[in-house]
Amino acid sequence: MQRARTQEAKQGRRAAFAAAALDEFYEKGFAAARMEDIARRAGLSKGALYLYFDSKEALFEAVVDTFAMPNVARLEAVADQSGGAGALIDAVTGVAPAIIREGRVPKIAKVLIGDAPAFPGVATAYRKKVIDRVLAAISRVLNNAKNAGEIDIGDPVLAARLIAAPMILSAFWRIVFEHDDDARVDLDALFSQHGMMLKRAFKMDAGA
To answer: What torsion do the CA atoms of 56, 61, 63, 64 make, to the nearest 10 degrees?
Structure first.
């Protein structure tokens, strides 16, 4: 197969390998996935794969960079541009359903849940690169709002976890249970109610 020569072609191959790796990890688990099967799924050779990635760990990092990091940047921008706790809650609960429905985040969550005990370094890297950054962005807004007297909360760091928790639950639920139509959840309604309950818990006007 012809070697990719332009930067655009190289990025296209990296993206193809990342997509194939995520599907392979999701279906077989990180431990059982094989590099040759990932290459075959991508429609490319094993040799081509090793030109870009020397291990499954490197491939998982590419999965995170390709599919998770854009959502991290999206949520960080939502937090930084929110202008206050009420707007933050509205923005996060507004964007969360689309992130869950898009499907990549639930697949990554399933891979981590299944193989974290055997590959703790992979899980730790994901936590630091993705989850910790999202929680930190939310915490900054909450801390500023608390200091300004806008909200009544205890620890902004713990409150950030409460805001983000339904995203993690929804990702898990989508992967584990929603093969059954009776288990499907209206994500827009769920996160709308979550936002309303958060505003009440923070002693804010729920309509703010």
So the answer is: 150
User: Residue written as tokens 């290459």?
Assistant: 39
DSSP element (H, E) containing 14: helix 7-28
Query: Which ranges of 34-155 would DSSP assign to H, the alpha helix?
Result: 35-42, 46-52, 56-63, 69-80, 85-102, 104-115, 120-126, 132-147
Torsion sign, CA atoms 61, 65, 66, 71: positive
Domains and CATH numbers, the chain: 1-54 (1.10.10.60), 55-201 (1.10.357.10)
Sorted by sequence, the CB contacts under 8 Å of residue 106 that are 6+ apart come out as 100, 170, 171, 172, 174, 175
- Encode pLDDT of 98-150 as tens digits: 999 988 889 999 999 999 889 999 999 999 999 999 999 999 999 999 999 99
Please enumerate in sequence order all residues whose Cβ is within 8 A of that of 144, keeping only pairs 6 or more positions apart, or say none: none
95 CB-contact burial (10 Å; exposed 0-12 / middle 13-18 / buried 19+): middle
Q: What value does the CA radius of gyration of the chain take, rounded to a whole number of Å?
A: 19
Question: Tell me, what's the pLDDT at 3?
Answer: 56
